[in-house]
Design brief:
Strand order of the largest sheet: 4-3-2-8-7-1-13-14
Order of helices and strands: HEHHEEHEHHEEEEEEHHHEEEE
Radius of gyration: 23 Å
Structural class: alpha+beta
Helix content: 25-40%
Oligomer: single chain
């Protein structure tokens, strides 16, 4: 009888413990939210003021930002990869003359368009980048192709274009990138014998007659997919009136783009030389990994303190492995948007 009671008690205890363990496991899985996904984008930051923006132009920017981010959101919602979401989202902005990337790229001193882009995969830490190409329609696509189909991380100039041709990417006549607004901006800068850097009004980015102040329109995207993979990408035309093959931060892994599934993904936009010196994108990830900072704490420290102290201006969009997102910039505005797995859409331009 005692033996039977002992066995019965053991069975109750065993299955009772299993139930507690199972419930605890379920709670932990709920907290981890393995199926969470999110996407965040930027279209550049700078001296962007409401008083200098027409209602029509403001509506154009918001409409294009919404269009771009919804493309990536749908991909993620259907179970697509963060890589595909970043690619397709950035391509929408590359094909719009509103932004300094692809079709809307600014002009160099020699009156050409030289395009840069980079991409990083947070799961493998693999990356691809391209600098100074003049005839590849989608620089972000080329950056990804360099990552997936070559042994290299970065290609530049004519060699990068040759690689793109071999891989079947769309090649366009350089005139594809011509827009009258950007060309006229260069002429004004030349007339004033100024070099435009893509940041604040003292060292102006390309001058936009509609906004009547400096801004820069580098585009970027960070996405987290349902498999927990983070990807980040950035694409730009660089700075107006740039010379001697100047390359900014956009194609530099760790400066303009960084992604690591342990921490976060980041895409930068700003005064490239300072972002390179500060390794802005990687620094945010490193602070999270080694100092256990939250995404918000890390982005605030890097952009509002470290970068600002050096004299750099600009911002980042970032999201962490749990889908938390951050817009951080030290300028008066940044074209930006975000969506989470609930479909909540945020589209903003000005500092609020």
């Amino acid at each position: 009888m005692k033996t039977s009671l002992s066995i019965f008690a053991f069975i109750i205890l065993f299955f009772g413990c299993r139930k507690v363990t199972t419930n605890l496991s379920e709670e932990l899985n709920t907290d981890i939210k393995q199926n969470e996904f999110a996407i965040i984008i930027h279209g550049g930051a700078g001296t962007i003021l409401k008083k200098n923006m027409s209602d029509e132009l403001e509506a154009e920017y918001k409409e294009k930002l919404e269009e771009a981010i919804k493309v990536g959101y749908i991909i993620l919602k259907k179970g697509g990869t963060s890589q595909d979401a970043v690619l397709k989202t950035i391509q929408v902005m590359e094909e719009s003359p509103l932004f300094n990337a692809g079709k809307g790229a600014v002009f160099t001193h020699e009156e050409t368009n030289e395009l840069d882009a980079s991409f990083m995969d947070g799961k493998t830490l693999n990356a691809g980048a391209v600098a100074g190409v003049k005839n590849v329609k989608s620089p972000i696509e080329l950056a990804i192709k360099i990552m997936t189909d070559s042994d290299h991380v970065m290609l530049s100039g004519a060699g990068a274009s040759e690689f793109a041709k071999e891989k079947g990417l769309e090649i366009v006549d350089p005139s594809y990138f011509y827009t009258e607004k950007r060309f006229n901006s260069l002429q004004r800068i030349k007339d004033n014998e100024k070099t435009a850097l893509d940041h604040d009004d003292k060292k102006a980015a390309f001058y936009d007659a509609d906004i009547k102040n400096s801004k820069f329109g580098t585009v970027g995207c960070v996405a987290l997919d349902k498999n927990g993979n983070i990807a980040a990408g950035t694409s730009t035309g660089g700075m107006t009136n740039k010379r001697w093959g100047r390359i900014g931060d956009a194609p530099i892994i760790g400066s303009g783009t960084y992604a690591n599934n342990k921490t976060c993904g980041v895409s930068s936009t700003g005064w490239g030389e300072y972002f390179i010196r500060s390794q802005v994108a990687y620094d945010i990830s490193a602070q999270m990994e080694y100092q256990q900072k939250t995404l918000k704490e890390a982005t605030t420290d890097v952009i509002q303190h470290k970068l600002t102290k050096l004299g750099g201006t600009g911002g980042v969009v970032a999201l962490d492995k749990n889908g938390n997102m951050s817009f951080e910039f030290n300028t008066t505005g940044m074209y930006r948007a975000s969506m989470n797995d609930k479909g909540d859409l945020v589209v903003k331009i000005y500092k609020e």
